[in-house]
Amino acid sequence: MRLIEKECPNCGAGLHFGKDDTTCKCEYCKREFEIERDTEKKKLDDQFILNELKTPFKFFAYFTFSSMISQIIVISITFVIIIIVAFNLIQGLSDSNSLFNRNSSYVTSTSDLSTSDYSTLDIQSRILISRETTGITGMYNTKGNFKREKIYVVSNDKTNYIIPIYKAEYANISNSEDKHIIYIPIIYKNVKTKNNSIAFSLGEGKISAPEYHFNDNNYSYGYTDLDTLYNEIIKQYENDYKIVTK
Ligand SMILES: [Zn+2]
After folding, report:
1. Residues with beta carbon < 5 A to ion ligand 1?
2. How does pLDDT run across 139-158, given as a tens digit for each residue?
3. Residues 49, 34: Cα–Cα separation, whole Å
4. Do residues 244 and 152 touch, judged by C-beta distance below 8 A?
5. Averaged pLDDT for residues 89-114
6. How many angstroms is it from 74 CA to the middle of ligand 1?
7. Which residues of 41-71 are buried (b: 16+ CB within 10 A; e: fewer)?
């Protein structure tokens, strides 16, 4: 049987169909056409006119879903997905436990932190103290490591502060009688746990204490007693936050 050769009215690709066909489909752009025949025309090829078949949802004509039922299914699924995504995006802005953030949650208690979280926090804090006091402590060295004396977990439904306090014992290297004990609080804001372990990046956390002078030139940062520290750092949160300590 002789095939009629036409250009696709949509994309220009070659289109072939039999002379008795009533519809045809372009292999390239997947558009479907109704074949209209004008028998007045003398040349056989000129007798065929292609009219695009209008599908109810033009957008989906680009896909190979030809039946209306499959188009309706695709549209319905798409709408459901859009609604779920939109709902979770809105939730995600206010709730750290949304679908996209399921494994991440704010620390609101000292028991939210595991033993390994505490050591991560301590390592991070000691790095921070060393970095911030390099060059200013002069002849005064710390005896041993900074020991975590206490920790406050301050939280409300919007944010949290994790405030570990490190006891530092500085002694003059040429006079061991000349020693100073101070408490150094570090504030970490918005601390979360992700997949059950603490999540924060290096560089977060700030020492929050005034200068403590060993002499005119040499100093560190800290409080001489824990009560003063509490009054100046923690007390301000008493009304609007839950405070847990260990
Ligand atoms: Zn085409």
Report:
1. 8, 10-11, 13, 26, 28-29
2. 999 987 899 999 999 999 88
3. 8
4. yes
5. 68
6. 23
7. eeeeeebbebeeeebeeeebbeeebeeeeeb
How confident is the model over 230-243, as pLDDT tens digits? 999 999 999 999 99
Burial class (CB in 10 A: 0-12, 13-18, 19+), 160: buried
76 alpha carbon, distance to own chain's centre: 29
pTM, full prediction: 0.59
Please give the Cα distance from 164 to 151 (Å, whole number). 4
Amino acid, single-letter form, for residue 72: I
* Interval between CA 190 and ligand 1 midpoint (Å): 56
Ligand 1 center–CA 23 separation, angstroms: 14
Element (H, E) at 187: strand 175-189
| Residue keyed to tokens 């409080």 | 223
Whole-number Å distance, alpha carbon 73 to ligand 1 midpoint, is 25
Measured distance CA(151)–CA(162) in Å, rounded: 7
Nearest to 151 by CA among 202, 206, 192, 111: 111
> How far is the C-alpha of 113 from the C-alpha of 200, rounded, in Å?
13
The Cβ of residue 10 has, within 10 Å, a number of other Cβ atoms equal to: 16
Rounded distance from Cα 77 to ligand 1 centre (Å) = 28
